[in-house]
Amino acid sequence: MLDALAPRDGAIYIDATFGAGGYSAALLEAAQCRVLGIDRDPEARRRGDALAARHPARLTVIEGRFGDMERLVAPVSAGPIAGVAFDLGVSSMQLDSPERGFSFRADGPLDMRMGTDGESAADLVARLSEAELAELIRNLGEERYARRVARAIAATRLQAPIRRTAQLAEIVRAAIPGREPGLDPATRTFQALRIAVNDELGELDRGLAAAERLLMPSGRLAVVAFHSLEDTRAKNFLRQRSGTGAGASRHLPPAAATPQPSFSLLTRRAIRPGADEIARNPRARSARLRAAERTAAPAWPALPGSRGAAGHVGAWGAA
C-alpha cells in the first residue's frame, strides 16, 4: 500500500476504511503528511484518538460511509487529495467481536452492521422470502447450494426466529453436503448477508467514483479486496477508467464516445501477498491490491441508470 501511494511530505491522504488505523499510522510515519480517516463504525473514531494524539494536527478521523467521502472531507480539508486507500470488507476487530455478529465461529446476535443504522442480518433473514434469500446467497455469496440453504432457513424460521450467529451457522452447515478443505460451509452465506446488510458493493461503486473526483492529477488510488465480487468491481472500474478494458463499440453514436482515461494503471495485475506475509497474517491470504494514478483528464460522468449494490439482485435492500 505504501509503495502504491508513495506518501510525501505536505500532502493529504484519505484512509477510506480507517478500522484500527493501520494504514493511517503507516502513512503518518512514512511522511510528514496529513491523513483523513473515514469509518462508519463509531468505535473506529474512538480508536483514532490515541493515534491522533501521537501525530498532532495530522490525523482527522470522520464517522461516516466512504461513499460519502466528498461531503465528509469538505469541512476539514480544502486542499488537493494526493492519495486514497481502500481496505475493503469486515475489519479484524469486527470479526473478532462476537457481539457484532459477523463471525460464524463464535455465538452472538445476528447483526453484521458495520455502523449502527439500518436492518440487521437477523432482520433480513426474517423478512426475505425463500426465493429472495436464495438469490441473495447465490449472487453475493457465490454459494452453489443457495437454494438448499434458503430452504433450510425458511423451514427453521417457521418454528422460531433466527437471531443468533451460531444458530444460523448450524442451519447452513446442515444444509450443505460435504465440506471444502479449509472452508467452513457457513462462510459464503455469512458473506452474502454481510454484503447485503452494509450495501458493500454499492458503497464501493460510490467510493471509487468519489475518489476519482477528489484525487489531484498524479494522485494515487489503492484498493485491497478480499473476495472476487469486490476485486472484480475494482478491476473493472480501473480498466475502464484507464482505457485498458473492452473497447467501445463502433455501433455506438458519437455522443457515446468514451471519455479520456482518468487513471493510468500502476500494475497490470493484482498484487498478492507473499508467503511471509501470509505466515504473519493468515487473513491476508485472499488479499488483492490494485493501484492506479490519476491523470489530468476530468472525472467520468455517472453512467445513466447506474445502480448501487448488486443492482441486478432483487429486493433485499428495499425495506
What does this structure look like?
About 5% of the residues have low confidence. The chain is α/β, with parallel strands linked by helices and 319 residues long. Helix 7 crosses helix 10 and helix 8 packs across helix 9. 39% of the residues lie in helices and 13% in strands. The protein starts with a helix and ends in a 25-residue tail after the last strand. The radius of gyration is 20 Å and the shape is globular.
Task: For the structure shown, list the relevant keywords.
319 residues, alpha/beta, seven-stranded mixed beta sheet, globular
Topology (SSEs and partners):
Blueprint: H1 2-5, E1 12-15, H2 22-30, E2 34-39, H3 42-54, E3 59-63, H4 69-73, E4 81-87, H5 92-95, H6 121-127, H7 130-141, H8 146-157, H9 165-175, H10 187-198, H11 200-214, E5 215-225, H12 228-242, E6 263-265, H13 275-280, E7 288-294
Parallel strand pairs: 1-2, 1-4, 2-3, 4-5
Antiparallel strand pairs: 5-7, 6-7
Helix pairs in contact: 7-8, 7-10, 8-9, 11-12
Which spans of ≥5 residues are poorly predicted at pLDDT below 50?
A: 248-252, 305-315
Averaged pLDDT: 89
What is the topology, as strand order, of the major beta sheet?
3-2-1-4-5-7-6
Q: Provide the helix percentage.
A: 25-40%
Continuous helix count:
13
Work out the number of β strands: 7
Query: Which structural class do the helices and strands define?
Result: alpha/beta
Strand content: 5-15%
The span between the termini is: 37 Å
Biggest sheet: strands, sense, closure?
7 strands, mixed
Order of helices and strands: HEHEHEHEHHHHHHHEHEHE
Q: Radius of gyration, Cα only, in angstroms? A: 20 Å
Label the overall shape: globular
